[in-house]
Design a protein that fits this description.
Number of helices: 10
Distance between the termini: 121 Å
Mean pLDDT: 83
Helix content: 10-25%
Number of domains: 4
Number of strands: 32
Shape: elongated
Strand order of the largest sheet: 1-2-3-6-5-4
Largest sheet: 6 strands, antiparallel, barrel
Length: 622
């Protein structure tokens, strides 16, 4: 026998060799009832098999040797099984995405690969969550864990003095401003669940990736837009997600997608357990659950990871708990359909480029606002042609079930702020959803969201600089001519003339005509809404719809009589006796905000600029 033939025979012998001598080749596990090995029967030196996907969709066997039990590692009476993986895992190490890989000993299910040693371990040492703990997921009630990983849990870690439109935006900024988190003190840490961003630009991941990192999530950039365009389970869902196969929780799908990848541990034909550790530890959830396809598994001593795509929706995740996630095959999760149109305009308002995007967004009171912010920012990056001098003009509509629709409008322009205009605009957009979902009375039911953003090739900002009234002495019923002058960025003054009608019943004496931006007019009403901790959904919708837009100049006639602001209501020109009764009878948790003056809005002058500032003209009524 020559050397060449001997090598071929040796190679065939290696391929045909089972995992352990004397054992027949193993077949991937299938869904259905399985015998459980209690933790008390697991002993050091036992040999077993883990199943996980390294490439494609078929699970492969990985030999496992039990090293022992680490008592109370997860918490009181919550032990972890320490094991050493062999086979392909020797080269790849314990990779992100292996979370949930089922481990069997003598055909009995022991648990799920869920933890790994911190970086640079020479051995593929893993921690196995006992299946007994994972099966307890189904016994939980609807309580929500206090340590859920949501964007609102991040605190600002810098002292940057930047005025930002919302706390939601502040969390993203704070995450990006901080470097690495303090080193974990544990030796074993949960395997990162890689969150795959398909169709997202590098700049988006650079801005938002640190926030996911602080939540213990590895953000991985995928290819083009996702393959999922519906939240309905695909045909054949009954036979999906066998133990060892890839499974994903879907946060966003459509033209772009955000999906978290792990491995199926258990499938009784209807219920699926996976991960062996929490995804976000949200407790009860209603998140689409999909199959996954692994493109490759990156071997690395520092950060091994699976690169994968979510494929077809096959059910819904209903629990996200300390010891894993639980989904139901065939179940359907509601998502919010979002349509975004981004247009690049020339200096004559002609459309140079246009892109339409369609998404479905996961419904959750903490995550939905953040995902709205994320997808808008990413859509803007697709047409970011005028980075320094551009102005972004947004108009949008939110349709709700059982409530009036919300109309939204604003402009954001680059300025002296270090934060780019697209991030400011995304923060403003996300904050509207933050206010909807964080009311303490009723959760909103959003039917659809649509938004159009126009990208203008210049910085359109203007400051109210001066104003003039022809005659400061007026009579009730007079029509008073007024001129206002605005100073734009790099341009001559903008002059606008209009007439203010003096009401016939206006009291004699001194009054003011105030020309102001939207923030000035909105301030008192917004304060009243924020001070009521139990504001209901209808009042929240009303407050958002009443907000003035920042591309208009507002003309108000101000007189010296008190105004009360209560929830979404404005009560002008109140007699002192009535105001005293209202203040005395108010509930302690429903604050009444008062102002010594009453501003009667006369008109709103539209400008295609971001208007800021205010100016006051004194008049005397004879």
């Amino acid at each position: 026998m020559n050397i060449r033939n001997a090598a071929i025979l040796f190679g065939l012998a290696v391929v045909a060799t089972p995992l352990y001598a004397g054992e027949p080749p193993l077949s991937p596990p299938k869904a259905g009832k399985v015998e459980i090995m209690p933790l008390s029967e697991v002993k050091p030196g036992m040999k077993g098999t883990a199943w996980t996907v390294f490439q494609g969709t078929e699970a492969e066997a990985v030999p496992v040797e039990i090293l022992g039990r680490w008592k109370n590692q997860w918490g009181p009476k919550q032990d972890i099984i320490l094991a050493k993986m062999g086979g392909k895992a020797i080269r790849t190490n314990v990779a992100g995405g292996m979370s949930g890989s089922p481990v069997y000993i003598n055909g009995k299910l022991v648990g799920a690969v869920a933890l790994r040693l911190s970086v640079f371990s020479p051995d593929a040492i893993c921690g196995i969550t006992p299946i007994e703990q994972m099966l307890e997921i189904n016994d939980f009630d609807q309580s929500r864990p206090e340590d859920a990983r949501t964007p609102d849990k991040l605190q600002a870690r810098n002292n940057r003095e930047v005025e930002i439109p919302s706390g939601l935006l502040g969390q993203a900024v704070a995450a990006g401003a901080v470097g690495n988190l303090p080193q974990q003190s544990q030796i074993l840490i949960p395997i990162e669940a890689p969150v795959v961003f398909s169709g997202f630009s590098e700049s988006t991941l650079r801005e938002f990736g640190p926030l996911f990192h602080q939540l213990g999530i590895t953000a991985v950039q995928g290819g083009g837009g996702g393959d999922i365009h519906t939240n309905k389970p695909a045909p054949g869902w009954e036979h999906a997600l066998n133990p060892g196969e890839a499974v994903a929780g879907v946060l966003v799908d459509g033209d772009s997608s955000v999906t978290g990848l792990g491995t199926v541990t258990y499938n009784d034909g209807k219920r699926v357990l996976a991960f062996g550790h929490p995804f976000f530890n949200l407790g009860p959830v209603d998140m689409p659950m999909s199959k996954g396809e692994v493109v490759m598994t990156l071997a690395s001593a520092f950060q091994p990871n699976k690169f994968a795509n979510a494929t077809e929706i096959v059910g819904a995740l209903h629990q996200d708990r300390h010891s894993g996630i639980m989904g139901v095959l065939g179940a359907q999760s509601d998502m919010i359909p979002v349509t975004m149109r981004v247009r690049s305009l020339d200096d004559k308002e002609g459309v140079r480029k246009q892109k339409d995007f369609h998404f479905n967004v996961f419904v959750h009171q903490k995550w939905t606002p953040y995902l709205m912010m994320l997808t808008l920012y990413n859509s803007l990056s697709e047409l970011n042609e005028f980075a320094d001098e551009a102005t972004y003009r947004l108009s949008g509509k939110v349709e709700l079930k059982g409530q009036p629709n919300i109309s939204l409008s604003t402009m954001q322009a680059s300025g002296e702020m270090p934060m780019p205009a697209p991030m400011m605009l995304a923060g403003w957009w996300g904050d509207k959803f933050n206010r909807l979902y964080l009311n303490n009375v009723k959760t909103p039911d959003l039917k659809s969201v649509s938004v159009t953003v126009d990208l203008l090739p210049e910085r359109r900002v203007a400051v109210i600089e001066n104003a003039w009234v022809a005659n400061a002495d007026v009579r009730p019923g007079d029509a008073v001519p007024v001129k206002v002058f605005l100073r734009p960025y790099r341009g001559g003054p903008i002059q606008r003339e209009f007439t203010v009608n003096i009401p016939a019943g206006l009291a004699k004496g001194d009054h003011r005509i105030v020309l102001s931006d939207a923030d000035t007019v909105n301030r008192m009403q917004n304060i009243a809404g924020l001070m009521n901790r139990f504001i209901d959904l209808p009042e929240t919708v009303s407050l958002i719809n009443q907000e003035r837009t920042n591309n208009k100049l507002y003309v108000s006639l101000v007189e010296s009589s008190p105004t009360a602001y209560y929830d979404d209501k404005t009560m002008p020109s109140l007699p002192s006796s009535v105001l005293n009764v209202m203040q005395a009878g108010r509930a302690p948790n429903r604050s009444l905000v008062t102002s010594p003056e009453t501003a009667s809005e006369q008109m709103a002058l539209p400008f295609d600029y971001v208007v800021s500032g205010s100016y006051s003209l004194r008049i005397h009524v004879k």
